[in-house]
Each structure stands twice: as C-alpha cells, then as structure tokens.
Design brief:
It contains 5 helices and 24 strands. The chain has about 375 residues and is mainly beta. It has 2 domains: about 170 residues, Tachylectin-2, Chain A, CATH 2.115.10.20; about 130 residues, no CATH class. It starts with a helix and ends in a 12-residue tail after the last helix.
C-alpha cells in the first residue's frame, strides 16, 4: 500500500509539475489565458484566444472521429533547449529550431492538451531515400472510409503522404503513392469532396484527385488561381494572380468551393503582415472568383469548426521582431519588416462565415485587430 501511495504521489507531483510548466512560460513570452477566460471567449466568439504555449508554426487543428480536437504543426524536437532559450526563434535559416518529428496533442475543450508524443519521425517513418531533417507544416486528416489517419507534410522534395496502421495516430505508416508523390509537392494539404473523392492540394496551387485506395492520381494536376490580378512586386510592368505563396487549403461551404491561401501583405517575403486570403468557385477546378481578404496575421492558419458549429482560425507568431501591441494596429504600416501581434504559441481567432443570398461565401476574422487590411496591404479590397 505504501508503494502504491508513493507511486500515486509521484504521479500527482508529475501532473503538478506539468501544470506549473504550462503556466510558467519562458522569459519574454506571456502566459496563456486562464480557463474561465478561454471558456467565456469560446462562447462569445468575438475575440482572439491565446490557448496554448510552446514553439509552433503552421498550427493545424482537426476534429477526430471521437469528437476530440487534434493539434499538430511545425515544431522543435522534444527537449530542444532553444524552445525555452530562444522564445522568438523564427524557425528559418541555419539557426532553425524546426525538428524532424510530427508532434501531436489532443483536447476535449481547447483548454487542456494531452501530449500524444511523436507518432511520426523522418528517421523512422519516411519512405524517402533522403528524408531530410525538418518536418514543416504537417496536417492530419481522418479517412472515415478506411478508418485510418492520413498525414502530409513538406518541404518540397522531402514531403510525405502516409497512412496510419489503423484508427490510432501511430505507425507503422504506409506510403501508398510511393514514388508517384514526386519531388514537387510543396506544402501539401488534403480535401474530401461531396462525392467521396479526395484531392491533394500543393504549391499554391495545383490540385489532383486520388484513386479510392490512394495509390495513384486519377487525373493530371490542375492549376487554380483567383480571377483578377495585382502588381508584381518584383517587376512593376507585370501582374500576378496567385492566391499566395504557401499554406493553401480548400473547404466546401454550402455549394461553393473555398480556396484559401497565405501571403505577406506586401507580396514580398517577410515584409508586412502574414495574412490569409480566399476565393470561391462552383467547381473545384474553377474558375475561381476574385481574391478576397480573410484576416491580418492569420497566415498559414487553419480554419476549423468547433463542436458548437462556430468557425475559428489557428494563428501563430511569425515575425522578425517580438509581438506588437494590439492597440492601434489597424492603422499601423508594417511594410518595413515581418511583424505580428500574435504571441508565441497557439492562438485561435473567431471567423464570421456566411452563405450570402447569391450563394457566395463571406469569410472574415471577427476580432477587430485581425479583421482589417493594414496600410501595407498591396491589394485594395472592395467590401
């Protein structure tokens, strides 16, 4: 009995230490919101919520078959001391903190997060001959017809498309596409259409449909872009029409396909704010309408629905300087450098998503600090 009590005491101590570490962030990083504040904010659905600490980029949240929220993203390897010592490491260049593992967390309420470990690592689970050392922008998608999870990640040439062994997020992972995945699938994402067809989206943006068993594509890739154009920042005599340069996804809302992409507000890398944009179409292959604005500082975020039906978008710190204060940010020109109001860690921002009378989709951040294009925005939007 004494041994059992000792074990229980150790378990309790470990839980306490975990809780304390969750509320004591590294120097320079603000603590996450308290449970009552998050719970009230989820109900109000009108302002951003800072819900989880830790170094993460490209956070991806999905609801699993068990009605729990699953989180992954670009992360360091567990135990990397730079996570505490360099709270605002950008993850870029030779000093990158990005690791070689896919880390996953699970939550029933978006407040408490259970660490599920590293179910996929490049060294153990990639089928690439040269798998590389960095996992960028992983996504997990539940495949109900197979009762398995699909995992995709980049970078280009090192990307993986893998299926779990069963209904749990773990291996051994299979790679049904094999070499057909190719070496050009940068920043891949998945989308399931109403007819059951799964599509791969990549490289801002190409799309191609999978066979039912995911062993091959059933059509050649199609390039999709928004209608209209804007000035090319690299050559003012030319124009561009792309949605962005990374972080592309597709949703089906009502009868419309909603094509979402990420770009810097200036269309110049690491200059301005990192934003999210969208356009819509009646067919997945297009043609798509004009590029519209979803939100400032939402770049490479994931729009997702909570179990109560509300839309949110994951956001994260992506800048060259520490986070800016919110006050007056709507009127502040950020074009001189990469800047954000997001703290390090996981923040979720409420979205207003409406099907309009003509069937088109309106999607916009609800929090005022995210809802307005800044003075540095190269495209002028008609509301």
């Amino acid at each position: 009995m004494k041994q059992l009590l000792s074990v229980l005491s150790l378990v309790g101590l470990a839980a306490t230490l975990c809780a304390e570490s969750a509320t004591n962030p590294p120097a320079g990083v603000q603590p996450v919101m308290a449970r009552p504040e998050i719970e009230a904010g989820l109900k109000a659905h009108d302002h951003a919520l800072y819900i989880k600490q830790g170094w993460i980029r490209d956070p991806f949240i999905t609801v699993g078959p068990d009605k729990l929220y699953y989180l992954t993203g670009t992360t360091p390897n567990p135990g990397d001391p730079r996570e505490a010592g360099e709270p605002y490491n950008t993850g870029l260049g030779k000093g990158s903190i990005v690791g070689s593992a896919v880390r996953v967390w699970r939550s029933k309420d978006l407040v408490d997060w259970e660490n599920l470990g590293e179910p996929f690592t490049l060294e153990r689970d990639s089928d690439r001959k040269n798998p590389g050392k960095l996992v960028w922008a992983p996504e997990l998608h539940w495949i109900p017809e197979m009762q398995r999870w699909a995992l995709v990640h980049c970078p280009q040439g090192k990307a993986n498309f893998a299926l779990s062994a069963g209904p749990e997020i773990k291996g051994p992972w299979s790679h049904p596409l094999g070499e057909q995945l190719g070496n050009d699938k940068h920043d891949p994402s998945l989308f399931k259409d109403d007819d059951g067809t799964w599509w791969l989206i990549w490289k801002n943006s190409f799309i191609a449909p999978f066979s039912r068993d995911f062993t091959h594509f059933t059509a050649r890739p199609t390039r999709i872009d928004p209608a209209g154009s804007r000035p090319d920042p690299e050559d003012q005599t030319k124009t561009i029409s792309r949605i962005g340069h990374e972080g592309a996804t597709i949703l089906k809302i009502g009868k419309k396909y909603v094509f979402i992409g990420t770009a810097w507000s200036t269309d110049v890398g690491r200059k301005g704010s990192y934003n999210l944009y969208y356009c819509t179409a009646d067919k997945i292959t297009g043609p798509y309408g004009q590029r519209k604005f979803i939100g400032r500082f939402l770049g490479h975020g994931t729009p997702f629905r909570t179990l109560d039906g509300n839309w949110w978008c994951t956001v994260f710190y992506n800048a060259n300087v520490p986070p800016l204060p919110r006050d007056g940010i709507e009127k502040r020109d950020l074009s001189q450098d990469a800047q954000t109001i997001n703290p390090r860690g996981l923040t979720i921002v409420p979205l207003e998503v409406n099907i309009q009378t003509n069937g088109d989709i309106f999607m916009r951040a609800s929090d005022p600090a995210y809802a307005t294009p800044g003075p540095d925005e190269v495209q002028k939007f008609a509301d």
